[in-house]
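Pipeline run #58 for the internal structure catalog. This entry was flagged by the ingest filter as a single-chain record with no existing model, so it goes straight to prediction. Upstream metadata was stripped on purpose; only the residue string is passed forward. Reviewer on rotation: M.T. Logging verbosity set to normal.
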Amino acid sequence: MRAADVMTAPVITVDPNTSVTALAALLCERGISGVPVVDAEGRMVGIVSEGDLLHRAELGTEERWTKQRRSWWLEAISSHPTSSFRDYVKSHGRTVESIMTRDVISVSETTELADIATLLETRRIKRVPVVRDDRIVGIISRSNLVRALTATKTDKATKADVDDAAIRNEMLAEVAKQKWKHVHAEDVIVEGGIIHLWFSSVQSGEERRAIHVAAENIAGVRAVKEHEVLLPLIPGT
């Protein structure tokens, strides 16, 4: 499987001039932990996460970040004036442009999931943007990979006869035409002609049945399997 098969799309983004308070509100309202930053032309220029909001002057946490370094080498690096400058901007900056990570690691739509998993692990990051021609087209998080793992328990012999990407695209397009279009791309994974659907614990039986029926009617589908996700008590946890 590749990035395009499991990525979340479309992606919620912010522009560099978004205020830090507006960013915090967006993360809470959408129940997400990070967003890419794009310029006026739609090019990705950075990424910002809830981790960038932990050490803020408003919370009184910026001094603790300076004092509690995790190792001697990090202490040595942090003692350099440049690091102090960055720490101050991070804790006092008023816009996303001030606190975002600029050197963003990204992948393409054709990157294999095994390579993405290795990337997330070795770089110790939680998500990676999927980019096409410098434009962000999706995002993959650890949870996307976990769901993909669930979907791999299929008959390998039948995969060559099935266009999983076409089935997924047709399924998402069908649901998007309906008034009850409460299906996100990350909630649909197709493997070996089997559509895997993820539902939240609060979705009604009627809604689940409608989505299930829509999946069953897609040409080439061998089966439809449902999975449930328990909603966290606190958004984003």
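catalog note: The chain has two domains: 3-142, 151-229.
catalog note: Confidence is low (pLDDT under 50) at residues 65-70, 233-237.
status: ready for reviewer M.T.
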